[in-house]
Amino acid sequence: MKKSLFLVCSLFGFGLLAAEDVRVPVSVDPLGFPPPIPVSVAGFSGEADSVLRFDLSFMGFEFVAPDKARYNIQKNSAAGVGASVIDPLQPASARMIYNKSFTGGGTRQQTHALADDLAKTLTQKPGIAQTRIACKVQATGIGAGEIVIADYDGFNPTPVTKDNVICAAPSWSGRNMLFYMSHKIAGKPDVLSHNLGTGARKRVTTTTGDNFTPAVSPDGRRVAMILSKSGSPNLYVCDPDGGNLKQLTTTHDGESCPAWSPDSRTICVVSRQSGKPALYTIPAGGGALTRLSVNAPSPTEPDWSPDGKYLVFTSQSGAGFQICVTPMEGPLRGTAMVLVAGEDPVWAPNSRAVMFVRTVNYRRVLTLLDVPSKQTKEIARITGSASQPSWAR
Q1: Pairing mode of beta strands 81-86, 343-347
Q2: Which of 21, 52, 209, 341 is the residue whose CA sits 20 to 30 A from 5?
């Protein structure tokens, strides 16, 4: 079984952190992703054409000639930005299966709306073109920085903070609230909440010691974080206002990087209780740490896909930092598949695309990745050194 697996990953462009490579002809996607849908796109030009193609590239589509396409996407003549979709497999009288147009805002916003609707219609997966991200941005990659939000493709970057202090680890709570670590209020690492609508900020943690890496549960009811008030960094959870604080781990070697399961019942966390960084899961209500065995050195920075099927994380070896993914269910659970060099991975709402950080000329650059095809695209519109992305879901 394992011998066949190495070739499966090779055939689909995945590296595998393992020692043996026996070549057996297998043609099954090891992660279970559906293949990209071949489409042709015609009639669009300028910004609408480039935005539509960019968006669809990370939502499960590939571009082919019309005679090779499963669907033909054609610009329609309605106001705004719109398209009709032709299904060549249907009878001639029923081939047009979609015909919509979107108005309001500029061309970019209209095209994003069209792309999301096409993705929902043709793949039954949520679109990501109208989503937002948050990240940490520093002038040089060290020292003080700011929290910035932007469209998922890097357009419309907007500073959330203007503090010029050390900050890190933004985490969305819904669409209008962020949690992050900042030195602003107490002059030391503390977790703050930030209402994006009103600008109001609150110190969530008021304990002694350092307080790091908030992670808001998908249901918005709890915040996981790392606090050192007991002497070593341990995992805690609390309400969004800081109430009902509960300590979940009591190790002496330190935890980091909490990540929630989609049902908000389990937390994946990095622990060094075995000596080296390893991934563990723990019930959010309390219980024992359970090691998640993955064949990857020094796994850190986990993120659980919204559909619950995968865990993406960073692995550090002699080759540097690598983005890896492992299934969370089935016979391949714990098998680490290398996707690309980089760090700080986070899943998109469609559980297909990942945003990560790539270092280019000593500058950290946010980069989009389509996991099954391994296609990447840098998000270069955010100036400075950008890292620790968080995706609003």
Answers
A1: unpaired
A2: 341
pLDDT for residue 297 is more than 60: yes
DSSP tag of 68 = G
Task: Write the pLDDT tens digit of every residue in 77-121.
Answer: 999 999 999 999 999 999 999 999 999 999 999 999 999 999 999
Q: 318: burial class by Cβ within 10 Å (0-12, 13-18, 19+)?
A: exposed
Q: How confident is the model at residue 230 (pLDDT cuts 50, 70, 90)?
A: confident
Domain termination site, one of 69, 94, 123: 123
Mean pLDDT calculated for residue range 365-389: 94
Rg of the chain over all Cα atoms, to the nearest angstrom: 22
Q: How far apart are CA 249 and CA 351, in angstroms?
A: 29
For residue 314, what are its two tokens?
């960073």
Q: Quick one: 25 and 62 in the same domain?
A: no
Say how far apart CA 364 and CA 92 lie, in whole Å: 51
Q: Which of 64, 94, 123 is the last residue of a domain?
A: 123
Distance CA 299, CA 132 (A): 27
Tokens of 388: 């620790």
Burial (CB < 10 A; 0-12, 13-18, 19+), residue 130, is middle
SS3 117: helix
DSSP state of 308: S
For residues 135 and 85, what is the distance between their CA atoms, to the nearest angstrom? 36
Is residue 158 within a helix (H) or strand (E), and if so which, with residue range?
strand 158-159
Strand partners, 16: 337
The DSSP H or E segment spanning 49 is: helix 46-57
Domain span at 290: 132-391
Give φ, ψ of 329 to 5 degrees.
Answer: -150, 160
**Domain shared by 249 and 371, yes or no:** yes
364 and 243 in one domain? yes
d(CA 45, CA 96): 22
> Looking at residue 105, which CATH number applies to its domain?
3.30.160
* Domains contained in the chain, number: 3
User: Which residue's entry shows tokens 């060094």?
Assistant: 272
